[in-house]
Amino acid sequence: xxxxxxxxxxxxxxxxxxxxxxxxxxxxxxxxxxxxxxxxxxxxxxxxxxxxxxxxxxxxxxxxxxxxxxxxxxxxxxxxxxxxxxxxxxxxxxxxxxxxxxxxxxxxxxxxxxxxxxxxxxxxxxxxxxxxx
Length: 133
Prior knowledge:
By secondary structure, the chain is mostly helical.
């Protein structure tokens, strides 16, 4: 028994609409454009109300929207340029190591300065030129 041609056409149209919506989602995310229901609907040339009826697609839109909410009003960062957790941890580790090196260097320079000032003062005291008797 052959399926109803109208049902087949509706199923094809549904799949094509889903494919356009998913493609629009990917393109918006890749370009760093804020992902909203209106933006996806416009890019895919579909209705916003249809997007709300698709749980997986609407969840994906909400996830991407949350991810880019903190990016500020200047626009979202394209997906390919977003920092990963691992790269952020590596940068933090490098910054902490540099901070520790600078702290150690600062401590060493303070000791050298204190020694030099002590030697200068003791040489003035020995020569009798100390302004602070």
